[in-house]
Amino acid sequence: EAALVALSFSGAIGLTFLMLGCALEDYGVYWPLFVLIFHVISPIPHFIAKRATYDSDATSSACRELAYFFTTGIVVSAFGFPVILARVSVIKWGACGLVLAGNAVIFLTIQGFFLVFGRGDDFSWEQW
């Protein structure tokens, strides 16, 4: 239960950084909110690979490695998107820094969720 509270708190901190990068008076541009799409789709390859390789006893499989590859591409894209927006002067570099900080916190929160709640073989979404 404490882990869930800590993950919720860190997710809120990450979203606060993201919103500050968009809503502060000096910045005022909401294009960086599109990184939320990357946050939502980043766990999807893992879910697909876990479902596809559920019966497999292998420590590594091509499906799981492909899921890692796609997840890495999604995460790198989430960090690259605000840098590109700042480079073409759509957002300011300060907003880019806040969005990158929010990305780091949110992705660490997502990873923490999988480390805390995804360990056991008897894992079910209904346990919390």
From TrEMBL:
Record key words, sorted: Endosome, Golgi apparatus, Membrane, Transmembrane, Transmembrane helix
Cellular localization per UniProt: Endosome membrane; Golgi apparatus membrane
Entries under InterPro entries matching the protein: Vps55/LEPROT
Gene Ontology terms: cellular component: endosome membrane; Golgi membrane
Transmembrane segments: 6-24, 29-48, 68-86, 98-118
Membrane topology according to the record: Multi-pass membrane protein
A GO BP annotation: late endosome to vacuole transport via multivesicular body sorting pathway
Superkingdom of origin organism: Eukaryota
Assembly: Interacts with LEPR. Interacts with RAB13.
Protein family per UniProt: Belongs to the OB-RGRP/VPS55 family.
Name listed for the protein in its UniProt record: Leptin receptor gene-related protein
Organism: Ursus americanus (American black bear)
The organism's taxonomic lineage, starting at the top: Eukaryota, Metazoa, Chordata, Craniata, Vertebrata
